[in-house]
UniProtKB/TrEMBL annotation:
It is found in: Membrane. Keywords: Electron transport, Heme, Iron, Membrane, Metal-binding, Respiratory chain, Transmembrane, Transmembrane helix, Transport. The keyword Metal-binding applies. Pfam families: COX1. This is Cbb3-type cytochrome c oxidase subunit I. Residues 1-21 are annotated as: Disordered. Belongs to the heme-copper respiratory oxidase family. Residues 1-19 have a biased composition (Basic and acidic residues). The keyword Electron transport applies. It is a multi-pass membrane protein. Its main location: membrane. Residues 27-554 form the Cytochrome oxidase subunit I profile domain.
Length: 603
C-alpha cells in the first residue's frame, strides 16, 4: 500500500512541478474554482464567518424579544419588515423562525464548516506532509455544495409565509404538514433541500479527509507521530461518514411525507376538526433518525476544537502534551460512545424506562474519556512556561467551558433527573456552553494561531486580548444564569412568559442575560475588524512565529500549489518535543533527525 502511495506521490510531485511553471492563475481559477486546499480552507472560513454574523444577529433579536416582550423596536421593523414585525412588535411565529434558523446556522453552517471545513482542509495536507488533498476536485465540489446550501438557507428567510419554524430539530407533525403553521410551507421545503445539499457536501469532505490521512502521509509519519489535531479531524470525518446519511434519510422521508402523501412520521391527525388521511407513521421514528446524527453532531463540532486546543496548549506551554496515547484513546472512545447515546434526547418521548436506563449508562460513560481530555490539558498547563497569546487564552477558555458545560450533562444524561428540567432553559445553558461556546472558542483559537500560516501576517494581539476577555465574561453572563431559570421551570422556545404569573420574578434575569448577549455580540466586531484588517495590513509574519514543531511551519508562507517547493520534509519524531533536554532550542521540529541515544518520549 505504502509503496503504491509513494509511487503515486512521486508522479504527482513531478506532474505538479512540471505543470505549475506553465500556466498563470487567473482571479477565477485562484479564488473561485480553486482546488488548492489552503484556498478552500479560506473560502470555508470566510463563508462560515458571514453565516456566523447572521446567526448571532438572529439570537440578539430574539433575546430582545425575551427581555422586553411585545415591546416595539425600530430595529425589528427595519430588519424583519412590516409583515413579520407589524409596528415594530415581533410576531410570535417569527420568533420561532428566528430560533430555528439561528440553531441550524450555528450548528451546521458555522461550527461544522468553520471547524472541519476550515481547519481539516488547511492542516491535514500541511501537517501530514502531503502536496494537497487526495482529490482536489472533490474538495472544490464539497465547498461549492456548502456554499449553495448556505445560499438556499438564507433565501428561505425571504419566502412569503416565513422560514422554517419547527425548531432546529424540525420534529413532525409541525414540519411535515404544510398547513400546520406559516413556516411549514415553502420555508420548510427550502430548509430540507438546503440540509440535503449540506450533507452531500459534508460527506464528500469527510471521505476526502479520511483518504488523505490514510494514504498521503510523508515518509516517517506513522499514525503515532500524527499531531492530535489530525487525529481529531480524522475521527471527526469518520463519525460524519457514519451518521450524516441517517439525517439524510430522515430529511428525504420527511420530504415524501410533505409532498407525496406518504406517512412515515404521521398518524391519526386532526386539523381544525378535519381528519387527515395519514395512518401508521410515528413522529418518534423521526426523533430516532434525527438524534442518531444529532448527538454525534455535537462531537463532530467539538472534537476538531479539542484537537486544535491540544496543539495550541502544548505549543504555548512549551512542554510535551501530557498523555499523547491516552488522548488518542479518548478521541476513539468518544467517537464510539457518541453513536450509542442518542436516546438521552428522548427520555420523555414515552420511551421504555429500561431502555432509558441503558441510554443513561452509555451517556454517563462518555464522561470518562471527556474527563481524560480535561485532565490532560490541565496537566499539560501545570508548571509549563505559559505564553498567554489570544490563541492560548481561547484554548484555556475552552477547557473551562468544556468542564462547566460537561458537568450539567451528567444531570441531563440521567433519565430520572432529566424529566424535571427537560425542555427548560437548563438544557439551553448546557448545550450552548459545552458545544456552542467551547466550539467557538476552538474556532477563535485556531484562527489566531494559524492566521500567519493562512495569510502570512499577524493579527493584532491587544485586540485579541480585548476580544477574549469580553467574550469570556459575556458568554458566562449569558449562559450561567440560564441554569437557574431552567431549574425554576422556565420552558425554552416560548415567545413570552407573561401569560404565566409564576415566572414574573424571572423576567429580571432575562433582561440581564440579554444585556450580556448584546455586549458580547457587539464585541465580536472587534474580532471581525482585526481579522479583515490584518489580512491586508497586519504585521508581516515570520515563517514559524510560535516556534512550533509541526510540519505546516516548514512550508513557505507565500501562496503556492503543492505546499513545499522542493522535497517534502521527512519526519523523524513525534510533534511534541518541546523543552527537550540536550537541545539548544526549546522546540525540535518533526523534520529534525534524532541524535544518538535520543529517545522518543511517547513510547
Amino acid at each position: 500500500m505504502s509503496a503504491v502511495g509513494h509511487e503515486i506521490r512521486g508522479e504527482h510531485d513531478n506532474h505538479d512541478a512540471h505543470d505549475h511553471h506553465h500556466h498563470k492563475d487567473t482571479f477565477i481559477t485562484k479564488y473561485i474554482f480553486s482546488i488548492d486546499h489552503k484556498m478552500i480552507a479560506k473560502q470555508y472560513l470566510i463563508t462560515g464567518i458571514i453565516m456566523g454574523i447572521i446567526g448571532i444577529a438572529m439570537s440578539l433579536l430574539f433575546r430582545m424579544q425575551l427581555a422586553w416582550p411585545e415591546e416595539s423596536f425600530t430595529i425589528f421593523k427595519v430588519l424583519l419588515g412590516d409583515d413579520f414585525a407589524p409596528n415594530g412588535v415581533m410576531r410570535n411565529d417569527i420568533y420561532l423562525a428566528l430560533v430555528t434558523i439561528h440553531g441550524t446556522i450555528m450548528v451546521f453552517f458555522v461550527l461544522t464548516a468553520g471547524l472541519s471545513g476550515t481547519f481539516s482542509n488547511l492542516l491535514i495536507p500541511l501537517q501530514i506532509g502531503a502536496r494537497d488533498m487526495a482529490s482536489g476536485f472533490m474538495n472544490m465540489i464539497s465547498y461549492w455544495l456548502f456554499f449553495l446550501s448556505s445560499v438556499i438557507m438564507i433565501l428561505s428567510l425571504f419566502v412569503e409565509a416565513g422560514p422554517a419554524s419547527a425548531g432546529w430539530t424540525i420534529y413532525p407533525p409541525l414540519s411535515a404538514l404544510p398547513q400546520a403553521i406559516g413556516g411549514s410551507g415553502a420555508g420548510m421545503t427550502l430548509w430540507l433541500v438546503s440540509m440535503a445539499i449540506f450533507i452531500a457536501s459534508s460527506l464528500m469532505g469527510s471521505l476526502n479527509y479520511v483518504v488523505t490521512v490514510i494514504n498521503l502521509r510523508t515518509k516517517g509519519m506513522s499514525m503515532t507521530r500524527l499531531p492530535l489535531t489530525i487525529w481529531a479531524f480524522f475521527i471527526t470525518a469518520v463519525i460524519g461518514i457514519l451518521s450524516f446519511p441517517v439525517l439524510l434519510s430522515a430529511a428525504l422521508l420527511l420530504i415524501f411525507d410533505r409532498s407525496f402523501g406518504t406517512s412515515f412520521f404521521l398518524s391519526d391527525i386532526f386539523i381544525a376538526g378535519e381528519v387527515l388521511h395519514y395512518q401508521g407513521g410515528s413522529p418518534v421514528l423521526f426523533e430516532h433518525l434525527f438524534w442518531f446524527l444529532g448527538h454525534p453532531e455535537v462531537y463532530i463540532v467539538l472534537l476538531p476544537a479539542l484537537g486544535i486546543t491540544s496543539e495550541i496548549i502544548a505549543t504555548n506551554a512549551r512542554k510535551p502534551i501530557f498523555g499523547y496515547r491516552a488522548m488518542i484513546a479518548s478521541i476513539l472512545a468518544i467517537a464510539f460512545l457518541s453513536t450509542i447515546v442518542w436516546g438521552h434526547h428522548m427520555f420523555i418521548s414515552g420511551m421504555n424506562p429500561f431502555l432509558g436506563s441503558v441510554f443513561t449508562f452509555t451517556t454517563l460513560l462518555i464522561a470518562i474519556p471527556s474527563a481524560v481530555k480535561a485532565f490532560n490539558y490541565i496537566t499539560t498547563l501545570w508548571r509549563g512556561n505559559l505564553q498567554f497569546n489570544p490563541a492560548m487564552l481561547f484554548s484555556i477558555g475552552l477547557v473551562s467551558t468544556f468542564i462547566t458545560g460537561g458537568l450539567t450533562g451528567i444531570i441531563l444524561g440521567d433519565s430520572t433527573l432529566d424529566i424535571n428540567v427537560h425542555d427548560t432553559y437548563f438544557v439551553v445553558a448546557h448545550f450552548h456552553l459545552v458545544m456552542g461556546i467551547s466550539a467557538l472558542y476552538g474556532l477563535f483559537a485556531g484562527v489566531y494561531h494559524w492566521f500567519p500560516r493562512m495569510f502570512g501576517r499577524m493579527m493584532n494581539k491587544n485586540l485579541g486580548y480585548i476580544h477574549f476577555w469580553v467574550t469570556a465574561i459575556c458568554a458566562y453572563g449569558v449562559f450561567f444564569p440560564m441554569h437557574f431559570i431552567g431549574m425554576a421551570g422556565l420552558p425554552r422556545r416560548y415567545y413570552t412568559n407573561t401569560a404565566f404569573p409564576l415566572f414574573d420574578d424571572l423576567q429580571d434575569v432575562n433582561v440581564i442575560i440579554t444585556i450580556f448577549a448584546l455586549v458580547g455580540g457587539a464585541f465580536q466586531l472587534v474580532f471581525l475588524w482585526n481579522f479583515f484588517y490584518s489580512i491586508f495590513r497586519g504585521k508581516k509574519a515570520s515563517m514559524n512565529p510560535w516556534k512550533s514543531n509541526t510540519l505546516e511551519w516548514t512550508a513557505p508562507v507565500e501562496h503556492m500549489h503543492g505546499n513545499w517547493p522542493g522535497e517534502i520534509p521527512e519526519v523523524y519524531r513525534w510533534p511534541y518535543d518541546y523543552s527537550k533536554p540536550g537541545h539548544d532550542e526549546d522546540f525540535v521540529p518533526q523534520n529534525i533527525p534524532m541524535k544518538d541515544g535520543e529517545k522518543e518520549l511517547h513510547h
